[in-house]
């Protein structure tokens, strides 16, 4: 069990990427900025201690591409050294690092050359990955190639609320999806090859997919079709391509010739919520209008809290792909910390239920270790096990964080823990 962050969320200090520019342009809802974020870049040592304190066995972290390759083809030794030091600290404390190679952030030289819609991105990404794996591969066995291409493309090319701020561009969405999948597949083989040469054992390479539940809002046939369409375009096309190399309609990838086999050692699932899909055309949300089921509990951002969805998703994905599952993210935006402990408990119960049904779930990473820069929502959206005071950068473990730390240590939830951290009437099954 572990916790997760990513570079742009916490590091600060790096200016030559798309999110710095997007913040500078005043696009962050609460007016905050990623330029300092959690100032992690200057607090690596103490932040690693925070992980130790919550008993994480493994930590999913990111690397900032622009810090490592500030200009195309020019790799910065100083930039990669930061991560090497951090990973050494983790390893020394017995925390297994899992490194995400791309998590929504592009160097400006890439962004201004068409980003992920330009086919050249595949080779550009592979060169970057080659350098990182070469520099860190002796210390790292677990790699997430790409994080949530679907969310990035939806927000950046459909809804326009993320960089590059485009709207309704279906062709760019599909081109981007193709390039992400192709990049992942080639990186999968490349990383294995490099690590084999380094003599590294027990290597795991996979992608992290944002998977939601899409249920139909009413029983009309049109609504059911709309829900299936959302699921297909938002998740299925990625899962098929990035896991088995099958580029299904409407991905166009005639030029990509691949042997049908597995291109993932695990399927990373980032699970947060469910959407009720209405059969109503709305170009801003992948053709269909979404809503939250009436009367259901929601987090601070209005997302339904739906633990059963984690059971449903893991079971469905495992049945279809038969590849081990890692929950690479699961968490809640809850500034007051009134819902997080129960959220953790209920979602872990969903994981246990799935495992009992034979689903091979091997990891659970809670999102996130600490409050951080939550993309277009800014720093006021709080997902952390640790509260962060952005003025002093003081991190304080929340009550729910203590609960999670105990679960990580004991691998169970005792009656005493229920009494201490959850309401008395929580059921103990
Ligand atoms: C992303 C994270 C993000 C989290 C909460 C996931 O979609 O991978 O970067 O912070 O959701 O919104």
Unreliable runs, pLDDT <50, ≥5 residues? none
Any idea what the radius of gyration is?
20 Å
- Enumerate the strands of the largest sheet in spatial order, edge to edge or round the barrel: 1-2-3-4-5-7-10-11
Shape estimate: globular
Name the average pLDDT.
96
What gap, in angstroms, lies between the N and C termini?
21 Å
Please give the oligomerization state of what you see.
single chain
| Global structural class | alpha/beta
- Helix fraction, binned, reads 40-55%
Q: What fraction of the residues are assigned to beta strands by DSSP?
A: 15-25%
Q: Give the topology string: H per helix, E per strand.
A: EHHHEHHEHHEHHEEHEEEHEHEEEHH
Number of DSSP-assigned strands: 13
The unique ligands bound to this protein are: beta-D-glucopyranose
Number of helices: 14
How many strands, which pairing sense, and closed or not: the largest β-sheet? Answer: 8 strands, parallel, barrel
Write the layout of secondary structure elements.
Blueprint: E1 2-4, H1 7-10, H2 18-24, H3 44-53, E2 58-62, H4 65-68, H5 77-92, E3 96-100, H6 108-111, H7 121-136, E4 142-147, H8 149-157, H9 170-197, E5 204-210, E6 213-216, H10 221-244, E7 266-271, E8 274-282, E9 287-291, H11 308-321, E10 325-330, H12 340-356, E11 361-367, E12 386-389, E13 394-397, H13 399-410, H14 415-421
Helix pairs in contact: 7-9, 8-9, 9-10, 11-12, 12-13
Bound molecules: beta-D-glucopyranose (BGC).
What does this protein look like?
This protein has 14 helices and 13 strands. With 429 residues, the protein is α/β, with parallel strands linked by helices. The strands form three sheets. It has an eight-stranded parallel beta barrel, surrounded by six helices. It has a three-stranded mixed sheet with strand order 6-8-9. The longest helix is centred in the middle third of the chain and has 28 residues. The mean pLDDT is 96. The site of beta-D-glucopyranose has 10 residues, from loops.
């Amino acid at each position: 069990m572990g916790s997760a962050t990513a570079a742009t969320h916490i590091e600060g200090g790096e200016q030559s990427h798309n999110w710095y520019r997007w913040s500078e342009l005043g696009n962050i809802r609460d007016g905050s900025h990623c330029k300092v974020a959690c100032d992690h870049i200057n607090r690596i040592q103490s932040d690693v201690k925070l992980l130790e304190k919550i008993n994480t066995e493994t930590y999913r972290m990111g690397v900032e591409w622009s810090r490592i390759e500030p200009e195309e083809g020019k790799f910065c030794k100083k930039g990669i050294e930061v991560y090497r030091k951090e990973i050494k600290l983790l390893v020394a404390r017995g925390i297994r690092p899992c490194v995400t190679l791309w998590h929504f952030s592009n160097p400006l030289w890439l962004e201004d050359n068409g980003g992920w819609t330009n086919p050249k991105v595949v080779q550009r990404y592979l060169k970057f990955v080659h350098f990182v794996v070469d520099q860190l591969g002796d210390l790292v066995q677990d790699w997430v190639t790409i994080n949530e291409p679907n969310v990035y493309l939806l927000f950046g090319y459909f809804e326009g609320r993320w960089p590059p701020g485009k709207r309704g561009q279906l062709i760019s969405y599909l081109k981007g999806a193709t390039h992400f999948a192709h990049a992942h597949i080639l990186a999968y083989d490349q990383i294995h090859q490099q690590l084999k040469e380094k003599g590294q054992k027990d290597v795991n390479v996979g992608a992290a997919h944002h998977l939601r539940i899409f249920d139909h809002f009413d029983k009309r046939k049109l609504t059911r079709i709309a829900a299936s369409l959302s699921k297909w375009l938002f998740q299925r096309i990625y899962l098929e391509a990035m896991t088995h190399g099958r580029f299904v309609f409407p991905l166009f990838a005639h030029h990509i010739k691949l042997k049908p086999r597995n291109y993932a050692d695990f399927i990373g699932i980032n699970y947060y919520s469910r959407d009720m899909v209405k059969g109503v055309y709305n170009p801003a949300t992948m053709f269909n209008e979404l809503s939250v089921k009436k009367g259901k509990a929601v987090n601070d951002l209005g997302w339904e809290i739906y633990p059963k969805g984690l059971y449903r998703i893991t079971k469905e994905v495992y049945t279809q792909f038969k590849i081990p599952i890692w929950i690479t993210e699961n968490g809640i935006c809850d500034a007051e910390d009134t819902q997080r402990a129960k959220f953790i408990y209920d979602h872990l119960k969903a994981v246990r239920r799935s495992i009992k049904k034979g689903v091979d779930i091997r990891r659970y990473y809670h999102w996130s270790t600490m409050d951080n820069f939550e993309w277009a929502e800014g720093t006021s959206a709080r997902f952390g096990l640790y509260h962060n005071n952005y003025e002093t950068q003081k991190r304080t473990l929340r009550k729910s964080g203590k609960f999670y730390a105990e679960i990580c240590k004991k691998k169970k939830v005792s009656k005493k823990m229920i009494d201490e951290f959850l309401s008395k009437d929580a059921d103990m099954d």
